[in-house]
Specification:
Elements: E1 5-9, E2 15-19, E3 25-26, H1 29-34, E4 36-37, E5 42-43, E6 49-52, E7 59-64, E8 67-72
Parallel strand pairs: 1-6
Antiparallel strand pairs: 1-2, 2-3, 4-5, 7-8
The protein binds zinc ion (ZN).
Zinc ion (ZN) binds at residues 19, 21-22, 24, 37, 39-40.
Length: 80
């Protein structure tokens, strides 16, 4: 089965979900969490994701069973 969506981060470190059916990107965290495309009104199958996160982007995106967990870690906030 071909992937129908992709999760990643753009050049500004914003996490997105991109629907590969209609090519629409969403930056809404709920859309990412639920793998939802508001354009197609479809929930994507969790098992066919393409997850692209650039190294050192600060993002960890994990697939845990049927859930996608996207967390941002900013190292600069850690230095007090
Ligand atoms: Zn779509």
């Amino acid at each position: 089965m071909d992937p129908t969506y992709e999760i990643g981060t753009d050049e500004n470190d914003n996490a997105y979900i991109k629907c590969l059916i209609c090519e629409r990107k969403s930056y809404h965290s709920k859309d990412i969490e639920h793998r939802y495309c508001g354009n197609c009104h479809r929930f994507h199958d969790p098992h066919v994701a393409v997850i692209q996160v650039p190294e050192n982007s600060g993002w960890t995106i994990e697939q845990q069973g049927d859930d996608i967990k996207a967390e941002y870690y900013n190292p600069e906030e850690d230095q007090s």
